Amino acid sequence: MSRNALLLAVVLGFFSTINACAPAAFQNEPSPQNIAPTPATRLPPLFVTATDTSTPVHAITPSPTATALDAATPTQTLKTNVLSTVAHQPSSTPTSWACWSAGGRILTGSLDTSLLRLPLQYRVYLPPCYEEQAERRYPVLYLFHGQSSSDDQWDRLGADETADRLIAKGEIPPLIIVMPYDRYGGQPIETKFSQAITETLVPYMDKTYRTLPDREHRAVGGLSRGAGWAVHFAISEWQMFGRLGAHSLAVFHSDAQRMRTWLGEIPADQYPLIYMDIGDRDRPEILRSALWFEALLNEYDIPHEWRLFSGYHSEEYWKAHLEQYLRWYTQDW
Known about the structure:
By secondary structure, the chain is an alpha/beta fold. The chain has a single domain, classed as Rossmann fold, CATH 3.40.50. Helix content is 32%, strand content 15%. It is built from 11 helices and 9 strands. Strands 1-9-8-7-6-4-5-3-2 form a 9-stranded mixed sheet, with helices on both faces. Helix 6 (225-236) links the parallel strand 6 (218-223) and strand 7 (243-247). The longest helix has 18 residues, at 3-20.
């Protein structure tokens, strides 16, 4: 039996059990007959609630030095909007400066806002030679963590070390990475975390750091619950984010009910660039969530890159693909 046939059989086998014990709120979700399926997305939709969406199966502590990442061959690739791979060594790269080999740095901070009960915490990665190249401006990547984690998750996975290594080799351009802390849980409609990001954090970053403050140079991504936030921002706030990365996507239930409306409001020539990936042994409910969203993109004929890799819902999986993620986010920047 092929890998894809086995995956389909496993997920279908789990569905009857999951559907029988699903919360009543799930019954209001879009019915499968309203979704134009593709061969890879014939499963009924199931969305995650506020609980247990992304606790890592195997937590890891990354080495303080960058190590080679394991290459993985995708088992399936569907419609893509893959950008051309180009060399990113800028003409102004200070290759002889000590700061270039020293790498970037991560700062921590918090913002008081009336939108939230507690300050909005964040981490921000500044690339090598940020201070020395005082006139240079940078694209920005916003990365959201999974549930039961914090703003340190992408740091622990090695986002900064991987970026340092690829920037030093001229394989990706220097960029700023912002990692907010979602401490509240729940659905987007239950808190004002979304507004705090778009109305407080993004303007603050553009004012405080030398960003390129436009949609074309602002990307959003996340893993598991964080991927749900990435989809939320890239689709509902499409004027702000031009690139979307959804890694092991768990779509918010409240967002699923409004997704078609949001997609219908985006001009056809303004869809964000989209990358999705998930492990073939991820949790059944999260596989269903990702497959539902990917089917919806096909229904609306929205170009995207879809990767089904071998792996689980774990930090080992995301770390193994971190270099691929950064290469994708930064293409053509």
